[in-house]
Amino acid sequence: MLQLSLSWLGLGPVAASLWLLRLLTGGSWLLARVLAWTYTFYDNCRCLQCFLQSPKQNWFWGHQGLVTPTEEGIKKFVELVATQGFKLWLGPTFPLLVLCHPDIIRSITSASAAVAPKDMIFYDFMKAWLGDGLLLSAGDKWSRHRRMLTPAFHFSILKPYMKIFNKTVNIMHDKWQHLALESSARLDMFQHISLMALDSPQKCVFSFESSCQEKPSEYIATILELNAFVEKRNQQILLHTDFLYHLTPDGQRFRRACRLVHDFTDAVVQERHRTFPTQGVDDFLKNKAKSETLDFIDVLLLSKDEDGKELSDEDKRAEADTFMFEGEGLSPCGLSRILYHLAKHPEYQEWCRQEVQELLKDRESIEIER
What we know:
By secondary structure, the protein is mostly helical. The chain has three domains: about 1-45; about 50-115, no CATH class; about 140-360, CATH 1.10.630.10. The protein is built from 18 helices and two strands. It has helices at about 1-10, 10-50, 70-80, 100-110, 120-125, 125-130, 140-150, 155-160, 160-180, 190-205, 220-235, 240-245, 250-280, 280-290, 295-300, 315-330, 330-345, 345-360; strands at about 85-90, 95-100. The protein has a two-stranded antiparallel sheet with strand order 1-2. A hairpin with a 5-residue loop joins strand 1 (about 85-90) and strand 2 (about 95-100). Helix 10 runs antiparallel to helix 17 (about 330-345). The longest helix is centred in the N-terminal third of the chain and has 37 residues, at about 10-50. It is globular, with a radius of gyration of 27 Å.
């Protein structure tokens, strides 16, 4: 039939053979892809069958929506974390392995990037926000940036930050004391700790006083909003595709929030750029030495690789935004969980208090500076 149709068009039997060849080639490629995907899916299921798995919500959604952001949901998650590891299914075919035991985690964290690459499915959701900084980059770019930014973690630079940390924590404590005097029976610690955890890096990264713990800050509110968007998208497998997500109201708000954060970071970087040519690097460092702090933007502007090349403005923005994200990420979660368990176990709370008092008993100041 195909040959007759092509003959009627004047293309002849040779053209019919070419069309058949293309059709067979396309069909073979599609079949090979399906077989490869099927084998990968089967192999993943076989390799992960030794890990604990809680009942799925249904065959299509997998475990999405089962662990809710409530106390009951956290309790379910804690029960799973008590094991060496467990698996969750994000949709019908995508497994997510959560490792919990330190020995297993150590083998992954000590492995090379080739053996244990980054999970770019979740990280890709943050690409428009964080760019190609240390968190999302890989290979030679990651190695180059890591070498250039290593001085930012030197003890002599980090030590002066303790005064900033003390100040931001004291602001949070004062707020808690005020709420306690008002006989407040409940306190959302996570919200307060998140603001404190963002206040600290904003001062350390940008030397910027936003007073976000005491009054609303559009920049801080936007970072919290971006984190919420990323987590919400991760739970909606149908929106993992960028094209579909950007058509949704959340996707459009996410892009607007990214522009706001980028505009803030770009403005700080450009303003700091303008001070360098007039002062000179040596004078600038002397003035910074007097103030006892060298913020992260300064390190970004001064960093050069072995060939003398500086970071581009886009890379500087990506690294600064990455550090702000890290400040609001796991730190508030970890601190909130620690305080939660200390509140539930007063004996351990007292044990920690005695240890701190023992360490500070010979200090002239109650401030912890190192």
